[in-house]
Amino acid sequence: MARTKWGQLLRVDPLPFLASSKNRLKKIQRSDGIFGFKLLRDKSSDLPWWICLAVCRSLKRWFLPALLGLALAAATCKTPHASTAKVPSQIPDNTVEIPGGTFAMGSDSKDANENERPAHPVAVKSFRLDRTEVTVDAYGLCVRAGVCSEPDAYNDQRGSYRTFCNWKHPQSRFSHPINCVDFPQAAGFCAWAGKRLPTEEEWEYAARAGSEGRTYPWGSDKPDQSRLNACGSECPANLVAKGFPRWSPMYETDDGWPETAPVGSFPAGASKHGVLDLAGNVWEWTASEYAAYDGSHAEKKPVLRGGSWGGGDPRTERTTNRFRLDPSSRAQFLGFRCAK
Ligand SMILES: [Ca+2]
């Protein structure tokens, strides 16, 4: 343990540490006389967080300063790398600009569920949204970088539902949306890519074309095999063949994809700003926890939007439809896109 003029709790001497790495230490002095260091980490560093522990001025007041130092270190040094990380060069920027504005969020229409009511004005600042859902290929880069964990079916579903997880078929489904990811995995990928998950407000604003208030991303026409990948005539037979119950399709035509489709396969379903697959393919995690629009209750569950390849009811594909799950949920219907 090194000794410095600032005390005896310093675990390393910062000078040789600075000389031998790309990390930088910033000296911190609190108003109550406590000294310490904040580590400005290089992304590639694997140095443990305790190296950032604050230094006390003397042993006379060791307990409280050490406690404060520990809290300071945990708050500043153990934040995700991505907040200061460079965007991985392998990830192309496929975002589109969504100009800000005010729109009526939610719906009072006869098709609206209770949690979509009442429609209410919301202002959204300009932001950028991924044009497509995050693919198996892109997510794989994050896994191979050692940042993201592998997707899988959720808990007791693993045995039977694993076949639907695109991660298990990386060669044939590299351009399909990554699915079977929980909320932390989705948020972690976006952070690694220098982005974030969109809020629920941003998602709906983009899907509705703001004040145009579209019922579906493409307009008001009912969903069909040309607009999205939902459960068409191709879907029930595939489920039965894999040993699952048959369920009713959304439309009686074949959209070509019994499970997920490569992202961007339905250009006729694009939003006003060219965002693809906002309806169908996979439900998309948002950054927002569920709260009733009337303020009556809230839940610690992220909201998902957009419907999926398994959707049999066209109402689930509406731009105002809301779905929420426990953040640890993973399923073949769940994916995401990022924003910034
Ligand atoms: Ca389909």
Question: How would you describe this protein?
Answer:
The chain has about 350 residues and is an alpha+beta fold. The chain is built from 7 helices and 10 strands. It has helices at about 15-20, 65-75, 135-145, 160, 185-190, 200-210, 235-240; strands at about 25-30, 35-40, 95-100, 100-105, 120-125, 125-130, 285-290, 300-305, 325, 335. β7 (about 285-290) and β8 form a beta hairpin. It is globular, with a radius of gyration of 24 Å. The model is unreliable at about 1-60 and about 70-85 (pLDDT under 50). Calcium ion binds near residues 230 and 231.
How many strands in all? 10
Query: How many domains make up the coordinates?
Result: 2
Q: Looking at the structure, what is the overall shape?
A: globular
- The number of helical elements comes to 7
| CATH C-level class of the largest domain | Alpha Beta
Largest sheet: 4 strands, mixed
CATH topology of the largest domain: paralog of FGE (formylglycine-generating enzyme)
Write out the strand line-up for the largest beta sheet, numbering strands in chain order: 9-8-7-10
Q: Which molecules are bound besides the chains? A: calcium ion
Order of helices and strands: HEEHEEEEHHHHHEEEE
Q: Beta fraction of the residues?
A: 15-25%
CATH architecture of the largest domain: Alpha-Beta Complex
- Amino- and carboxy-terminal Cα gap: 43 Å
